């Protein structure tokens, strides 16, 4: 027979598992935080993954592919789940979706849907990201189909480039690339309506999917350096977001600042919120990686200004903050310290994030593995830094979320509201002897479900401030 206190503690940690699955159609931004259908503050941590058959960099005219792209299957999704990731940013390409004007490849949509299903079954939401690098695979790395270049530049007025891709930076600033971006953001030949129509095809296809978080309008829009204006970028975002809303009123719409933010570490602060409901602001953070900031000393304070600016920008947009990309060369000095410092800032500023990159078998080899994850070769220091304790769903509003990487301890304070459970991810590999849970200073029994890292519990009753702590067992 349970004693009264033991019974109370048992009830506090024993919760129905139905609360655990996020529904991407039902997440909303409220009171300054992203919340699920139970009103819990949600935190999303995840990865970017370029997937073979989705990331389009191959040719049918004899030119060599630009680079090898890893496969992504159910095994990859399962390994992501094991690290505690609940978000995948999946780059897709206009060139594969609409290879000829008005002709959409249904097989391509099916391949995207297969990855969404694999992730959904493992509790991972997907951002479908309309990706580009240097505008198009024809003149850069990926992005728009050839017919758009014929429209914007004129057939035969640009080079047909192939692989291997060894000169991406040169391609980004090549005359044809800059002109294509300038014409695109000036909406020459009504090109943006064609783009919005393609995005709408994807949004309509996934409008009922609980596994999709939202649609990202364009990766790293290259406007200002190509001679365009901030007003053109804002107008483009609103145009595409409005088109999405005509076919899908539920999922989020993700938008980025101009790519120049990657080196300036700040973007203009808007005078008014994003005018289309359900926007999510998604800058990339590469402070000390691609800018002039020197991180070789390991001074983690260098990262704070960019993240703090991003939080101000997101607040002005009236949108949750998603760090759509952050990452660093695994060979760089203090690379794992950089990752830890960036995650600390994300915790403090209540930002969501997807790390660049899950796997990479070309370019800089920035992945979590030395090659494909199915073949082993895990970069343990990298995965250790990324897979750490965090509160994935909090019944109320987070006041403090502090993880001590060296001590493996979490301190979570929140203003409790509602009766839904608190959900933590506690990576088993960080706690070989198990871990201790405390609610307002009192120890709690660790649920049996904690074996897979997901811990659901209730701390206290009613509204009010709560303190949950996690620490290694002796």
Question: What can you see in these coordinates?
Answer:
The chain is built from 13 helices and 21 strands. By secondary structure, the chain is of the alpha/beta class. The protein folds into 2 domains: 1-41 and 391-474, Golgi alpha-mannosidase II (Immunoglobulin-like, Sandwich); 42-390, Glycosidases (TIM Barrel, Alpha-Beta Barrel). Helix 8 packs parallel to helix 9, helix 11 packs parallel to helix 12 and helix 12 runs parallel beside helix 13 (380-386).
Quick structural overview:
This protein is of the alpha/beta class.
| Residues in helices, as a percent range | 25-40%
Strand residue content: 15-25%
Kindly, what is the distance between the CA atoms of the first and last residues, rounded to a whole number of angstroms? Answer: 28 Å
Number of strands: 21
Give the total of domains.
2
CATH level-1 class of the largest domain: Alpha Beta
SSE diagram, text form:
Elements: H1 4-13, E1 28-30, E2 33-35, E3 41-42, E4 45-48, H2 74-82, E5 87-92, H3 94-97, H4 106-120, E6 125-130, H5 146-153, H6 168-172, H7 175-185, H8 191-205, E7 212-216, H9 230-247, E8 252-255, H10 261-264, E9 279-281, E10 284-285, H11 304-317, E11 322-323, E12 325-326, H12 335-349, E13 352-355, H13 380-386, E14 390-394, E15 396-404, E16 409-416, E17 422-425, E18 435-439, E19 442-444, E20 454-457, E21 464-472
